[in-house]
Backbone:
């Protein structure tokens, strides 16, 4: 059985989830919709992989977050193969290149499961069932991704247009589509040929390296230089800052997946997948799983408050006679926003950056 090496991408800043998500402790290291943090959920999902041959995870995260990573892994008694530290963000194509080179040095016949640390998956057995469908196709030389069955015309996700069927629930990818407007997303769903792009990939390491050579050789070469000159302390590999700074920043979807002739998708995946990327998404999830018309987390009392989500990680919060609000209270900052305006949290984050405020740290 071919061994699968999970490479968990944990470098995102999560600014849309301020004030919980901060520079020193981004969203993936917090419990947002479940008892465990999203990073811990991902580690547990890799450990509880059924009969699959899965190696100890490799974590790629921001420099300075290694203590958080190791502490949460230790708390779950989960071993890690390595923690690779990025001196700055260079998007997912660089992450994929580093993963390919690092895993190839460990096992040139391996598969890489490249996945984000900040997803919530309610049915992990269904997730692994999808990976099992993808594994033989990936081993045969396809670059696989997972297509999430849409629950509606969401404009916050990219879409995958599936083409020719090549195995059970596996199709060649006809096209990747950027985040559409609502009209376009509705038309996608009417065809029955589109799925959400979850950004979860399964690659044969040799196939992936070949495609980097054909489509993004500069990203691969600069990433390998950063890895070759990394400072190694225990299982931590701090990438060389000057070499990594030279690396072109681009998503792996654009750099590789949209250019390769070997892209395929498992579709549909029904695993209760949720991209916990905004307060609006969290609010929708929490209210959906609540027995009330609103939902709360922490020391909260809500009276005559409809379609609201209130979270307190510190002070007692009370709401009376309000609708469609999200309130997030921390010890040093409070966010109050209409549910339809959560995309503008970035404006507050930009203000805090400009003013060099400590509430961003």
Residues:
């Amino acid at each position: 059985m071919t061994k699968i090496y999970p490479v968990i991408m944990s470098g995102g800043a999560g600014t849309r989830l301020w004030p919980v998500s901060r520079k020193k402790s981004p969203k993936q290291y917090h419990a947002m919709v479940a008892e465990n943090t999203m990073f811990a959920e991902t580690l547990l999902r890799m450990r509880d992989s059924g009969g699959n041959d899965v190696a100890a995870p490799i974590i790629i995260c921001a420099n300075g977050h290694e203590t958080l990573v190791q502490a949460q892994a230790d708390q779950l008694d989960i071993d890690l193969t390595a923690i690779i530290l990025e001196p700055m963000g260079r998007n997912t194509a660089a992450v994929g290149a580093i993963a390919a080179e690092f895993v190839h040095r460990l096992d040139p016949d391996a598969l890489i499961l490249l996945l984000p640390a900040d997803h919530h998956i309610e049915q992990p057995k269904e997730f692994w069932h999808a990976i099992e469908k993808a594994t033989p196709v990936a081993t045969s030389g396809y670059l696989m991704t997972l297509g999430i069955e849409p629950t509606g015309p969401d404009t916050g996700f990219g879409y995958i247009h599936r083409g020719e069927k090549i195995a059970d629930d596996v199709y060649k990818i006809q096209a990747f589509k950027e985040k559409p407007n609502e009209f376009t997303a509705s038309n996608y769903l009417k065809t029955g040929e589109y799925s959400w792009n979850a950004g979860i990939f399964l690659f044969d390491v040799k196939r992936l390296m070949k495609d980097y050579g054909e489509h993004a050789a500069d990203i691969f070469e600069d990433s390998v230089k950063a890895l070759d000159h990394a400072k190694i302390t225990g299982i931590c590999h701090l990438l060389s800052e000057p070499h990594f700074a030279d690396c072109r920043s681009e998503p792996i979807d654009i750099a590789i997946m949209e250019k390769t002739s070997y892209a395929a998708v498992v579709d549909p995946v029904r695993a209760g997948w949720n991209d916990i990327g905004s307060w609006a998404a969290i609010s929708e999830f929490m209210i959906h799983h609540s027995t009330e018309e609103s939902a709360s987390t922490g020391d909260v009392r809500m009276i005559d408050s409809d379609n609201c989500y209130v979270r307190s990680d510190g002070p007692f919060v009370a709401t009376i006679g309000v609708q469609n609000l999200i309130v997030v209270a921390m010890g040093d900052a409070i966010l109050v926003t209409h549910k339809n305006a959560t995309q503008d949290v970035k404006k507050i984050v930009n203000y805090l950056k400009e003013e060099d405020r400590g509430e961003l740290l």
The radius of gyration is 21 Å. The mean pLDDT is 96. Residues 279-360 form one domain.
